[in-house]
Amino acid sequence: MNQHHYVAIMAGGIGSRFWPQSRTSYPKQFLDILNTGKSLIRWTYERYAAFIPNDNIYIVTSEEYVSIVQEQLPELNAENILAEPSRKNTAPCVAYISYKLLQKDPEASLIVAPSDHMILDNENFRKITLQALDFVSHINSLVTLGIKPTHPNTGYGYIQHEPMQVADGIYKVKTFTEKPNLELAKTFLASGDFLWNAGIFVWQVKNVMKAFEKFQPEMYELFDAEKAHFNTPSEKEAINRIYPLCTNVSIDFAIMEKADNVYVIPSSFGWSDLGTWNSAYDNLEKDYLGNAVASENVIIIDATKCMVSAPKEKLLLLQGLDDFIVVDTPDVLMICKKEKEQAIKEYVAEVKRNKGDQYL
Prior knowledge:
Layout: E1 5-11, H1 40-49, E2 57-62, H2 66-72, E3 81-84, H3 90-104, E4 109-114, E5 118-119, H4 122-138, E6 142-147, E7 158-167, E8 170-177, H5 182-191, E9 194-204, H6 205-215, H7 217-225, H8 235-242, H9 251-256, E10 262-267, E11 271-272, H10 277-283, E12 292-294, E13 298-301, E14 307-309, E15 316-319, E16 324-328, E17 333-337, H11 344-355
Parallel strand pairs: 1-2, 1-4, 2-3, 6-10, 12-14, 13-15, 14-16
Antiparallel strand pairs: 4-9, 5-11, 6-9, 7-8, 7-9, 8-10, 16-17
């Protein structure tokens, strides 16, 4: 293990598209969505712990989730759990960990990764990530892992790359594209030079800080003014001063779409961002009628292609539904057509309007 290799696992989201199982008080990264016996963040931590020193693994999360992280990852040093005072998207999160590491280890190379993605081929993932770490140690570059698309998915962002390699399996990025419509997604797939944006990034911290200085000078100056406090007892107070002044912006929009030294590694390692109930359905085993059941106490009669999640202490009997999402929790039951899953966020807003925050 290289002592200059670090990972920041981002775990501050609320996972509203996995409502009603994912709640503001206990969001999806801390849940066993696929009924595997481990939460998503636990899987992510173990994936990186295989090749990153434990002292170099950081979790960036919301203040309200620190105790959950400590409970689920007891091996992690308490000082490696960074608490954000407010949700400001991923750019401030990346600036925080990068500035912190820059003061500690000027030669640090950093992986930035979501906490709630699923990866099936851990060995290939490790190999590709180490390849990216090696590349950024030699070249001033910002590397992203792009997933070779298997179908025209409209739920992912896309990365277009140049046709010629700059190194073995590494290409310069031409463009980032937000979630396309179906026709455009089909065009991207047919062209062969578009990849899904997995949101996993690798760089040397000194180089990403140069990018912040160039493309996000206001945010850069906020962190730079407080740098003496990082890795000291006054760090928390400094972060509490910085965050209210930060723009709410993603690292993709803030840096990656603007920089001219962005490279991508086309990758295949069984990736899914597990962003929706349909993505959970895709990754679960199905019965002979195409039903995916993330529970141990469900009886299905004459129902097909349903996604079912229920607590094991309660019997759920399902009859006659076709292509539905059925999620049962102690206080909420949701029955929703699978084709309407993108509207779940709207339904959550409707619940808030009618019932307040009690069920969120």
